[in-house]
Structures
1.
Amino acid sequence: MKTVTYSKNIFLPVTDLCRNRCGYCSFRRDAKDAHLLSRSNAMQLLEAGSHMGCSEALFTMGESPWTVSGFKEILSSAGVADLMDYLVELFELAIEFGLLPHTNAGLLEEDDLRRLQPYNASMGLMLETTAELYVHASSPGKRPPSRLEYISLAGRLHIPFTTGILVGIGESWQDRLEAMAAIAELHRTFGHIQEVIIQPLDPKPKTLLAGSPSPKMADLCWTVEAARRILPAEVAVQVPPNLADPRPLLASGASDLGGISPLTADGINPERPWPSEVELHNSLSGYELRERLPVYPRFIALGWHGKKTRSLVASLAGMDGLRAKKYII
């Protein structure tokens, strides 16, 4: 039986203030409506996630919120002096509750990335595309060279890394192939890519792409097949099971379902609920479904995960590097 992996997580949106204005995003807020995740809310989520058997705390935020007018006031009202220090505080809380941090904080300076690295089992940044698209015209952080350089930086620092492409945002077939080839080349150079997400557009009301169609299943299957041909064999191809039926995509070469949560919604696509572990086990009866940690087994063996997470990883991982104990709710 083919093994299909997933992680069990909680989603913690640290802030939804963002300098980018992507034509498909409903996560971003302006300063007057933006929030900063409070310590009390973070602790409640972490405690609940721990009780539900989660192993991953997925921290996300808008990119470079400190460049947006009004962010200092948001920090001040929350009693936070520095965002990077606050992130470290949240990571330490997660580890205390037995959850491994995985962070996608957009583009960071090298000093900040080095500051966060020890507290993370893995980190991530969606490449999205290597094409210059009109949906990114007001998104300085979505310039492909900047994102490729950031993924390279993570490789130089030996950070186990998740990236991926978005399908249906105006890119061509050739654009998808070139993006996957660029990721493959980064992995051949640095060896740090653990998974590549093939994420379909889920059109959001009141966005530039609100009237765009979602990608057809045939297009997604073709993209997964291409990814499996282009990417090195040890790099997993991931598909989100709340955005598309995973069965034909698994048959096309995907092997991972990403993070699913028994507690929190998909913060980027909150109207698309996660399937439960029981539902996945029932619908994927022809596969061996295994829970993993946010860091893949080969990176555990290499010791590339953050040094502050190593004792927790050792307590959670089995002999094969996957989650030692399954939790099915």
Note: The mean pLDDT is 96.
2.
Amino acid sequence: MIKVKQQRTADCVVGGYRMSGDSVGSLLLGLYDQEGKLNYVGFTSSFSAAEKADLLVELEPLQGESAFTGSSPGGASRWSRGRSSEWVPLRPERVAEVVYDQVTGQRFRHGTTFHRWRPDKAPQQCTMDQLAHELRPAALAEFLEPA
């Protein structure tokens, strides 16, 4: 048996962050839908302690009104176990490329891994259609069948 773990990348707008102590705990990610609304699609928290402290200095000047005009982060979760769902909104100016493994209901199923900043990409280019190319199990079976 061979296990093939599918990994994809997506360019996402950084629409906010959550704090963890005195530094950034995670970045909140968004993608624009066809109506131009920015929807929350997940988070990334794959930074070292030093990087998280540096992120706070870098992101504080971008604080502003919530960029999420569609679905937004927060609310009750069975996974949060009483942790705060508070977050700091940012103007939609930064784009991050993240690695993800699965999408469920137009959200990343698990936390993503930060890959790199994308200063060459405009936030408006970060759209939900990046997730439409998800390879489903039926398509994977068809792809792996011997000719």
Note: The radius of gyration is 16 Å.
3.
Amino acid sequence: MKKLTCRDLGGPCDAELVADTFEEMGNKSRQHVVEQIQAGDESHKLAADRMTEATLDEQKAMMAEFKHKFEVAPDV
């Protein structure tokens, strides 16, 4: 099990997310961002917009960076 923050995954806050797999971490990250946007948090909306407005190559680079952060994060 690994622990990363929203900020580690390109977001604006230090909320901690815990997951067994990179895919699960991605799902939890998306869920967190959606919840924050629904609560009216503009900083999470801006972070989500950056991801969706990035080019395909930029998105691939971000995902590679996030996956690396997950892989090197210590087990909790």
Note: The longest strand covers residues 2-5.
